[in-house]
Write a structure and sequence with these properties.
The complex is a heterodimer of chains A (about 325) and B (about 600). Helix content of chain A is about 80%, strand content about 0%. By secondary structure, chain A is mainly α. Chain A has two domains: about 70 residues, no CATH class; about 230 residues, MetI-like fold. The termini of chain B are far apart. The N terminus and C terminus of chain B are likely disordered. The chains are: A mainly alpha (about 325), B alpha/beta (about 600). At the A-B interface, helix 1, helix 6, helix 7, helix 8 and helix 9 of A face helix 5, helix 6, helix 10, helix 12 and helix 16 of B.
Chain lengths: ~325, ~600
């Protein structure tokens, strides 16, 4: 089990290197001078630009820059913003509460409601089943920003239940935080909730038709014990795996939804910094997002190890 | 947004050959989506000629013009451009994005998937690793960094995104190819010396074409959603109209003219919806979705069965089974009379058990023989009350110790399972819950039956494991099913069934899945247990050897009917039904001794 988790952690590190490396190349692709120019005022001369290139260390080979950045990042130093001169870690730290709130709330919503709906659809069948399946098609088809727009129109502008924009930190006011987080988190979670519910539904039905369920019934176990102890337990492992994949998509949704609700999160940092060629800040945002993904994947792997004795005992 | 659910196990190419498209066309929603997509493609092609105004034409007098009031039919946007024209002109960009994304992911995923699935080995390990890394890359982040740097090349962005979604195609193609690779006709092609290149092109690709095409459709839908998302973030080409940028424009205007959001939202929803419906149609057609019948649907089916018994039932009534003498004396334990089990599918009734009657007395071992599909297993499942939800028992009676079981409330029935009757299944490994230890499964069963404490149940389970011939019961008790052998698993299942000291043991081909050496041991064990407790045994088997070895009486089934029944010796010595005779002849040890070689006939031949 420990060996397995170490292996998965290693795989997570590979993903971290791949993504940050790829982004590093992409950010530098237009050349050092172009980057320096976009950071200076429009009337800056060539000398000024060259000076800026050297000042930012952009004249070094890319691989040297990357290794330098990587070394810093691994020791907790994300560098200094090209645009503002602030340490990137401070910049990221101000954005983390927003994005983390969105991810956490939408994840909790997704898990709770998908399990509820999935179990309900599988055990009741009939109309509930059809509604869940139909909704999953509709909500799965429309992008999360589309849902976000609809939610804003209906609940923020129409009913005025929630604010349309802005963010209140949880430390300041819990209800203010809840009010600002609800709509964006819903927009992110709705599609994945229904998608996951349908997934859970089919794995429950799949499990219910397994031979061992019949054998357990033949020993006089109650339907409730079979459903909650055996069927759900066996359906959990594949569900957790799918959840891990969905979270990556959920993060993509977060970035766009932040924009709709004008939330000052990591996604908008990545966007703004990228457009301003503020490479360290943009990479800081990417690093945080990849870190979240790797942590979530590791959690999923650990959960899988816990749920699946074949993994645990090997 | 970019869900890759379809990476799960997909059925082999069998469904593909059954005419996947035909199955899909049965669903009106699939047909509707195909029509939507055809219209969308048409619009993308002829759009430039049919737009009423150039999409970027600015009419300052028509800024935010409401719909249906001016020559801008759907109104003007915040810059005074015709919304209808922009809506139509956007189709082309969306189609192009969809095309680029699906071509790239198709090229990468299909080629790598074919090679990995067909040849396996090193290539497969490397590509598996590579694609799982890609799968974990957060696509939208890479896309955003790409856009902000390279500027506004939708083509490049969609190509990169195509690489990022290629894993779902790769894993599906690899799974499908691997399945087709095992098919006999592919083997035959290899043996006949056809080069691999041609086999892949001619046999494998054809067999997997339908799911691949449909997954490509799903990915195309993803492409459109992602492109619109990027445009919505303001990362598109400003001069080119798109649904995403129209959404952004409308969003700026949300307080002034909220209706402007509706048009691009509808267009986007329709097209992405149509694409995703098609890919869901793929999943349903491939895996066959099971929908639990509602109560009303169930009673409708029962009605249907009551009214329309099929030919098989008539046949059963006309030709009653052959019996050898009167039934023996003794207390009746299990008594099945005129049992009829049917399934209803699309209004067609299939009767799998038609008028079966059989009895088991206390201490008696009865063999239920017949080829697979003869209805033996359905009969015993009915006795155990373990038929699947779709099965309909339309008539007959099943009594255990004189008590009618059909129609008995589930809670009462549950109390009978265990002490009343127990079940030993056919396939040992799939009948143990993989997530729980052997011990806990046995303990749960014992506690459900007699409500004893955990310690008592543990002791009983350990004793029972020892009784069924397991040498190290404590170790097996703590093991998970995947850690023990098939023979061991079957002993565990027998222990689970016999632990409750049932009056009747129903064993469904208990030795079929085992090695020959272990078969004999398991049969001995069953015999010993039977003699120890004097329980009645109903033994389902297709082997007359097992019947001869263990049974007192035998019931022969064919096509859902009993054709012959009687004491084993009588049936073996003088089989009356033709079917029994042919079954007995097929058993090697019972074949009449062959005479000396008839040289005359050989030379003549």
């Amino acid at each position: 089990m420990i060996l397995y988790l170490l292996k998965r952690a290693g795989a997570g590190f590979v993903i971290f290197l791949t993504v940050t490396g790829l982004c590093y190349v992409l950010y530098n692709i237009r050349g050092a001078e172009a980057i320096a120019r976009s950071l200076l005022s429009t009337d800056a001369g060539l000398d000024q630009i060259r000076l800026k290139v050297v000042e930012l260390g952009l004249d070094r080979p890319l691989i040297v820059q990357y290794v330098d950045w990587l070394g810093g990042t691994l020791t907790g130093n994300l560098g200094v913003s090209f645009a503002s001169g602030q340490p990137v870690s401070a910049l990221v730290a101000t954005r983390v509460p927003v994005t983390l709130s969105l991810i956490a709330v939408s994840l909790v919503l997704t898990v709770i409601f998908s399990v509820l709906l999935g179990v309900l659809a599988a055990s009741r069948g009939g109309a509930i089943d059809r509604v869940v399946q139909g909704l999953s098609v509709v909500l799965g088809a429309v992008p999360s920003y589309w849902l976000a727009l609809v939610l804003v129109i209906v609940f923020a502008l129409g009913l005025r239940w929630f604010p349309a924009t802005g963010f209140v930190p949880i430390t300041q006011s819990f209800w203010g935080w809840a009010a600002t987080v609800t709509l964006p988190a819903l927009a992110i979670a709705l599609g994945s909730t229904l998608g996951l519910a349908v997934w859970i539904r089919s794995s429950i039905i799949d499990m219910q038709r397994r031979d061992f369920v019949r054998t357990l019934r033949s020993r006089g176990l109650s339907p409730r014990a079979i459903m909650y102890r055996h069927v759900l337990r066996n359906a959990a492992a594949p569900t957790v795996q799918i959840l891990g994949l969905m979270i990556i998509n959920l993060l993509g949704g977060t970035i766009i939804v932040e924009r709709v609700f004008a939330l000052p999160g990591i996604g908008s940092l990545a966007l703004d910094a990228g457009q301003r060629a503020d490479i360290p800040a943009a990479l800081g945002a990417v690093t945080f997002l990849v870190f979240v993904i790797v942590v979530i994947n590791l959690t999923v792997d650990a959960a899988n190890g816990f749920l699946n004795p074949k993994v645990r005992t090997s | 947004m970019i869900i890759t659910e379809t990476t799960g196990a997909v059925d082999t190419g069998r469904a593909a050959r059954r005419g996947l498209f035909r199955i899909m066309l049965r669903n009106p929603l699939n047909v509707a989506s195909m029509i939507v997509l055809a219209l969308f493609a048409l619009l993308a092609i002829v759009g430039p000629w049919i737009v009423p105004f150039p999409p970027n034409l600015v009419r300052p007098d028509l800024v935010n013009a409401p719909p249906f009031t001016s020559e801008f039919v759907l109104g003007g946007d915040l810059a005074g451009r015709d919304i209808l024209s922009r809506l139509i002109a956007s189709a082309q960009g969306a189609l192009r994005s969809a095309a680029i994304l699906s071509v790239v992911s198709f090229a990468l995923g299909v080629s790598a998937g074919l090679i990995a699935g067909y040849f396996g080995k090193l290539f497969e390990s490397i590509s598996n690793w590579l694609f799982s890394v890609i799968l974990a890359v957060p696509g939208i982040i890479v896309l955003i960094s790409l856009y902000t740097i390279v500027g506004t090349s939708t083509t490049l962005a969609m190509a990169v995104f195509g690489v990022l979604v290629a894993p779902s195609m790769y894993f599906m193609v690899r799974t499908l190819t691997r399945a087709v690779r095992k098919e006999l006709y592919v083997d035959a092609a290899r043996v006949s010396g056809l080069p691999n290149r041609r086999i892949i092109a001619r046999h494998v690709l054809i067999a997997i074409r339908a799911p691949v095409i449909l997954m490509t459709a799903g990915l195309a839908g993803v492409g459109i959603a992602v492109q619109a998302g990027l445009e919505f973030l303001g990362l598109g080409e400003p001069a080119v109209p798109s649904w995403g940028s129209m959404l952004t424009d409308a969003f700026f205007n949300i307080r002034l003219a909220p209706e402007q959001l509706v048009w691009p939202a509808i267009a986007l929803g329709l097209v992405t919806g149509a694409f995703s419906l098609i890919s869901i149609g793929l999943r349903d057609a491939l895996e066959g979705t099971y929908v639990k019948p509602s109560r009303r649907e169930r009673s409708r089916r029962i009605e249907a069965v009551r009214h329309g018994a099929d030919a098989r039932t008539e046949e059963a009534r006309e030709s009653p089974p052959v019996t050898h003498g009167p039934e023996p004396d003794g207390t009746l334990l299990l008594e099945i009379r005129d049992l009829e089990i049917s399934y209803v599918q699309r209004k067609a009734i299939t009767t799998v058990v038609a008028g079966v009657s059989l009895t088991v007395r206390e201490g008696e071992v009865v063999g239920l023989v017949g080829e697979s599909g003869s209805g033996k297993t359905q009969t015993v499942f009915a006795a155990l009350g373990l038929l699947p939800d779709e099965a309909i028992v339309s008539s007959g009676s099943i009594r255990l110790g004189g008590v009618e079981l059909l129609g008995m409330p589930e809670t009462e029935f549950r109390a009978l399972r265990g002490p009343g009757m127990a079940y030993v299944p056919q396939e040992p490994m799939s009948n143990l819950d993989p997530a729980f230890t052997i011990g806990s499964q046995l303990v749960y069963g014992l506690r459900a039956q007699n409500g004893c404490s955990r310690t008592e149940a543990t002791e009983m389970a350990l004793a029972m494991l020892e009784r069924v011939g397991i040498h190290d019961p404590v170790r097996v008790f703590r093991s998970y099913p995947h850690q023990i052998s098939g023979g061991m698993a079957q002993r565990v299942l027998i222990a689970g069934a016999a632990a409750s000291r049932p009056r009747l043991l129903i064993a469904d081909e208990p030795t079929t899945a085992l090695d020959v050496t272990i078969q004999a041991e398991v049969l001995d064990l069953l015999r010993d247990l039977q003699q120890e407790t004097n329980m009645g045994v109903l033994l389902v088997t297709h082997s007359f050897g097992v019947v001869a070895d263990l049974c007192d009486r035998v019931v022969v089934m064919r096509d859902g009917r009993v054709v012959e029944s009687g004491p084993v010796r009588d049936v073996f010595d003088a089989p009356k039904a033709e079917y029994t005779r042919s079954l007995l002849d097929a058993v090697l040890d019972h074949a009449p001794a062959r005479g000396e070689l008839n040289t005359k006939e050989v030379t003549r031949a």
